[in-house]
């Protein structure tokens, strides 16, 4: 019995061991695990890594995101891909494991472009601001520079006017130069000299703005105005196609109030004006009664319209093996809100990137665009103000057409504006500005060793800008025609050597050396044909009675060497030192070469990698550097000649030349030295970020035109004299206010404050007159440059109201009478002219909010500008009664001075340039409000999305300014640097209010 019991227990024991071994074997048995790795949109990710934790065993997903790996149930798979959060998954009993990767925003934001390379954000020592495509993805944009507005602290973006295709002014940390160019350097995919206005916003992956000299010194003589580094998109993953189409309806928010809407009062006031200057009244009582009964013509309303625009963007991106691609096309067709104006643009891009081998990578980017402005508003009839100015001052009692249906070319009574009918000018003018651009960039990187690599960037671009114009506003009302062509060609070769090594795990040293050469040529030709005998359009220019031609050529070369050292100690202390040596053909021997150094350091008091508290990042930064500005004409060191036709002997005229400026062999670049200190703060587990930078920059050796005495021939000569200072601070604050599964709210605030001051002029001068003249035939400049004051000083008389009846004798001493305008005078009784305002903003800000709830998303973007004045010469023309606009058109003129109603509204002719027309320009604008809804797996198609969105731009404007828009300014021909004459409005094209409706499809 015992024996049987023993055998039974033995068998059970052996069976238990066997079963245990079987279980152990099954637990460790290798099985095939398959699956697909997709991104946040459900698109397959090729090249994702799947590794068994603790081993070197792993595989990579194929083109369709699929993988297959042998693993046991107890193994843990580690799935990773650049830019996404790494996921760990235990195999268990599963044989199929599909993974949806989530974007790791911290990793994506961690690397920024710093020029000739990249750096981790936490290691950056200079002042660098990043604007990613995500921040403006929900704003329907047609211009890239609009994406910068209010989104990067220290960057001021202002529209010149509201015309389609109009220029936009970008300034980084104030204005440095009085006569030179203040535009920042734009670098697109490593090629210098790009133009933001021509790019398709859909092509942009990110824009990194280098603001201080410690960051911009790597660009030497071209970096004084800051640098904008644009990185265009690259393809990855399974092929994707995106289509974005939106249409926009635009209109002027409000018309300016004028007497064109009260034409009976206009006629009465005109009669009073005529009597005041000793002339007979223009209108009879019967004519006034008829005007009150039937109304007149509001020419402001006649030249404005509701405009419809269309914008189509298509892109295809992805990867095929070792080849990545991004292809895009953009077509925009914009009607202007001014009749017979508009803009069309077509652009195409191809970005290819191939990993030829483990060591060699080659990229080729090709971009082409063609833009055409129709009746460029900025160039039409600006001698006496723009066409908006003329429309607002035109005679409302003269209809557009006569009884025969022909244009009334001038005022029938010779009142109000004496210019040509603005409706005629716009409808009959045929002007076409065509801008054609082509650029190509070849980028090749070879990794010699793990520590050493070489990159070659070759870039070439060709720009053709052609203008053909037929205008009816010629001499004696006969049409003119003119044509100009400007061909710009440039190429660049950059050789970049990078060496990086980590010593003893705490010393990280990186050296970057650059040898660079660039060359550019500019060829321009033009002709003007005056008084066409056959008024049938541009192509009859040969019938003109007068011709003039012009030609110009310029070539520049720049050769450069740069060395940058980046040192990181124990992941806390970062030091960057840079030196760039530039040689330019613009200057004479002995002055061609300049050295531009910089040094910066940053120290992490709280390192985000080692701290998980509420304050998880605290970094201090400081830097100093010097950069240059070669913003002088290609042959600016030589004497310049002008040409004219003159009858020297009293007979037939013959051509001749004369000196306009003298040579200066000692001329060199302006130099800007800048000191920057900053603090970076991260908090609440990375949900919030805050940074503040304070800076001071001094631009010395300022380029100015110094007058030459008449005994030495007169004219002027370029010299390096003068100095300008800018000091201010930039603040950036970002926070994920709500961060849940279904609801997210991200806000970003960017604030910039800058104060500018002229600290030195030439020959002890304390003031230089500007070149911007007021319309009205009074020939007075409205801008000045003053020592000790900011650039942008507005010049004029101080308006004191009107002379009252009790001041009749005092007024008579100056030849005035009660009701006339009264101005501040000096001890000699002369009207005092001086600074009465400043057109340069001191504070700008932008507040961007992105809210998403399930499939809904909302973008709200507000921006503002403060601390500046507007010289409203448009209002002066409406009110002033002088020059070519001599009738009173202002709506408040009905309350003008009378003996029984002694107001401060003059009843007689007054000065255009006076403080009466200085207004505060401060404003707050709702720039964008966009609401969208996304359908996922649309129409039952996997990985297909459809988004519908509606929105508006410039929806409301809070301001005390009485004109169309305080952000707008206007230019009247060649009247000097726009930065020393900002905030002047002589009839800028209005900024429209726009409503958009669009659809995006991705599949």
TrEMBL record:
Compartment(s) of residence: Cell outer membrane
One family from Pfam that matches here is: TonB_dep_Rec_b-barrel
**UniProt membrane topology term:** Multi-pass membrane protein
Name the major location.
Answer: membrane
Ranges of residues in domain TonB-dependent receptor plug: 120-227
For this UniProt record, give its keywords in alphabetical order, as a comma-separated list: Cell outer membrane, Membrane, Signal, TonB box, Transmembrane, Transmembrane beta strand, Transport
Q: Which Gene3D superfamilies match?
A: Carboxypeptidase-like, regulatory domain, TonB-dependent receptor, beta-barrel domain, TonB-dependent receptor, plug domain
Q: Which GO terms describe its cellular component?
A: cell outer membrane
The entry sums up its family as follows: Belongs to the TonB-dependent receptor family.
Tell me what this protein is called.
TonB-linked outer membrane protein, SusC/RagA family
